[in-house]
Amino acid sequence: MFETDAPHESLEKDFFHKKPELLILGIGNYLLKDEGVGIHFLRYFQKKYKLCNKVSLMEGGTLGLNFLPYLEGIPYLIVIDAANIKNAKPGDVRVFSKDDILNNRLPLKISPHEAHFSEVLQLLEIKGKSPKDCVLIGIQVKDISVGIDISEELKETFPKIENLVLKYAQKFLGGISECFQRNY
Fold first, then answer.
1. Collapsing DSSP states into helix, strand and coil, what is residue 22?
2. Which helix (H) or strand (E) holds 136?
3. Which of 63, 80, 101, 118 could be stapled to 38 by a disulfide with Cβ–Cβ 3.0 to 4.6 Å?
4. Which domain range does residue 148 map to?
5. For 156-183, what is each residue's pLDDT tens digit?
6. Which CATH number goes with the domain that contains 166?
């Protein structure tokens, strides 16, 4: 453990110099293969696009309730996470609305140590600081054993997830052509 004179609160305030209008958040445990699909997707997406200052990407790992300070006051949120969806095949993708999230209509969480994202959003709602709108894009996992590679079935979903991210960014922000410039 290290010591610093800077209070924790200042670190939270400085996380975003200016909070973005849209945060694209990848969550999950990167060390448990498919559990880290949200983070793997963000890295794929970041290589493909240069973003405008209205949009930020964040690798959330397994921060759980520690997400709160970073998400407060973000107008729009797109979350990408591993899911355990009933009757789904590995790589199946489902989109859950803000209403689904707030009313606990999400699949069971995969990692028992992390807070379910619905708990995070519910706390933001109670504080009056939840996003105007958000979606969670859940991807059915195949293998959550120890390792940093994800299943081919999940890698193959990245173009579909990319299209969903762009679709919801368009819905939330309106014109997005200046916000997502392709890297060639």
1. strand
2. strand 133-140
3. 80
4. 23-182
5. 999 999 999 999 999 999 887 788 999 8
6. 3.40.50.1450
